[in-house]
Design a protein that fits this description.
The chain is of the alpha+beta class. It folds into two domains: 101 residues, Phosphorylase Kinase, domain 1 (2-Layer Sandwich), CATH 3.30.200.20; 281 residues, Aminoglycoside phosphotransferase (APH), C-terminal lobe (Aminoglycoside 3'-phosphotransferase, Chain: A, domain 2, Alpha-Beta Complex). The protein has 14 helices and twelve strands. The strands form four sheets. It has a five-stranded antiparallel beta sheet, sandwiched between helices. It has a three-stranded antiparallel beta sheet with strand order 8-10-11. It has a two-stranded antiparallel sheet with strand order 4-5. The structure holds adenosine-5'-diphosphate and the ligand CSC[C@H]1O[C@H](OP(=O)(O)O)[C@H](O)[C@@H]1O. The site of the ligand CSC[C@H]1O[C@H](OP(=O)(O)O)[C@H](O)[C@@H]1O has 13 residues, from helix 6. This is Methylthioribose kinase. Homodimer. GO terms for molecular function: S-methyl-5-thioribose kinase activity. It catalyses: 5-(methylsulfanyl)-D-ribose + ATP = 5-(methylsulfanyl)-alpha-D-ribose 1-phosphate + ADP + H(+).
């Protein structure tokens, strides 16, 4: 698309965003004067505009990074480069899983915008789960997404020069720092970003005083800081996944960077585990609860199995690693990735319960005592997973732990 864009950055609004859209070749000329615009962003960081020609129903999304974190305000400055990372990550993901990401129509570094496919016919997975819906294609789609994006960005496939170019291109220090702090540090210390009800203080104290737990978290944090294994989405929670029956789209990869291979699938699993706990409060009938919870555990199992099967197939057919065909090399990699994923999942569960950024699954539980009960369960589960990474040897053992939480 050809476009004539503003020379300097300015935050867009429902009027000025039209100047961007009109410069694109997307809508019919006749529709440009009466496009319907709405800012729909509900995330922590950015503006998201939905722009529609209501006659033809043709629509697109303009996402713009603000120079600060929207959830906190201007006191938390944040790089605009995250918009470049997001659009380049979407394009990179589209090389291996085009059916699982929104199409990027246009991006502009000065304005920090990504113009992309409108997915309003899909629903954010977290909302779908809270309302008790299930999605048959989800497990396979997320297993495929995580395996293909992992393999094709790794040293098992890329030439080392190309891999190192990609590591540079996706260097994302400010967004990584958010994760380093909010996922791996602040919830494990008495830090002012933490946010939890006073009634949880004794459970929180247990975490802060558990030396064995802190030792394991420090290893996971170090791994996150230092292991440039694959290009990660970086924030693969259920608010970053759009779904409808038999369609899955992964959005919002502004946290993308080269990191440890188990991180993305761990976040997916952790958010399913949080929803699993919350279903005890949300599900209307015991039968519904049991079937949704069974579905969630089966989805965790199938997504991991698809990840390993897809990764294994790519390894056997396409690996350039000189040790690829040596017995046990792939198995060691997958086993190490699995065990670390269990630890990462534990950290995500804890931070979503007592850290800065919570999940609606637990926070929208209506009765206060029930909410507290399941938040305690989440903290126990997160701690157990972190401390038992090396004792959980396969995916059904992991789902047994979640079932037993
Ligand atoms: N491609 C899209 N199509 C339709 N709605 C979208 C699209 N991308 C984002 N949204 C809407 O905007 C919200 C925030 O988007 P997200 O990318 O998660 O922003 P943030 O980076 O601020 O978290 C989503 O929850 C969704 O409702
Ligand atoms: C101040 S950022 C907190 C939190 O928000 C991000 O999520 P999202 O962009 O999907 O709203 C990310 O998970 C950060 O940890």
């Amino acid at each position: 698309m050809s476009v004539q864009i503003k020379p300097t950055y300015e935050p867009l609004n429902e009027v000025t965003v039209l100047e961007v859209v009109k410069a694109l070749d997307f809508f019919e000329e006749a529709a440009l004067s009466h496009l319907h615009v709405k800012e729909i962003g509900d995330g922590n960081l950015n503006l998201v505009f939905h722009i529609e020609d209501q006659a033809s129903k043709k629509a697109l999304i303009v996402k713009q990074a603000l120079p600060y974190a929207k959830v906190v305000g201007e006191s938390w400055p944040l790089t605009l480069d995250r918009a470049r990372i997001e659009s380049e990550a979407l394009l990179k993901e589209a090389e291996s899983v085009p059916h699982l990401v929104p199409k990027v129509y246009y991006s502009d570094r000065t304005l920090a915008v990504t113009v992309m496919e409108d997915l309003s016919d899909h629903l954010i997975l977290r909302k779908g789960f809270i309302d008790g819906h299930t999605y048959p294609a989800l497990a396979e789609d997320i297993g495929t997404f995580t395996a293909k994006t992992a393999f094709y960005s790794s040293d098992f496939y890329l030439h080392p020069f190309e891999k190192k170019e990609q590591v540079k291109r996706f260097s994302n220090p400010e967004l990584c720092k958010i994760t380093e702090d909010l996922v791996f540090t602040d919830p494990f210390f008495n830090h002012d970003t933490n946010d939890y009800p006073a009634e949880l203080q004794s459970e929180v104290d247990k975490i802060w005083n558990d030396t064995e737990l802190l030792r394991e978290v420090s290893k996971l944090r170090f791994s996150f800081l230092s292991k440039a294994e694959i290009l990660l989405h970086g924030d693969l929670h259920t608010g970053s996944i759009f779904v409808k029956e038999n369609s899955t789209k992964v959005i919002d990869p502004e946290f993308a960077f080269y990191g440890p291979a188990g991180f993305d699938i761990a976040h997916f699993i952790a958010n399913l585990a949080l929803n699993y706990l919350s279903q005890n409060a949300h599900a209307k009938e015991p039968f519904n609860r049991e079937s949704i919870q069974l579905y969630l555990l089966q989805t965790i199992e199938k997504s991991w199995d698809t990840f390993t099967e897809t990764f294994t197939q790519l390894w056997n057919e396409k690996s350039t690693d000189p040790y690829a065909h040596v017995d046990g090399v792939l198995e060691n990699f997958l086993q190490k990735t699995f065990q670390q994923a269990i630890g990462f999942a534990g950290c995500e569960i804890i931070r979503r319960t007592i850290g800065l950024a919570h999940v609606a699954d637990l926070d929208t539980i209506q009765q206060k005592d029930v909410e507290l009960f399941y938040k305690k369960k989440a903290l126990e589960l997160g701690s157990k997973l972190i401390k038992n990474q090396r004792n959980i040897t396969n995916i059904t053992e992991l789902t047994d732990w979640i079932r037993g939480a």
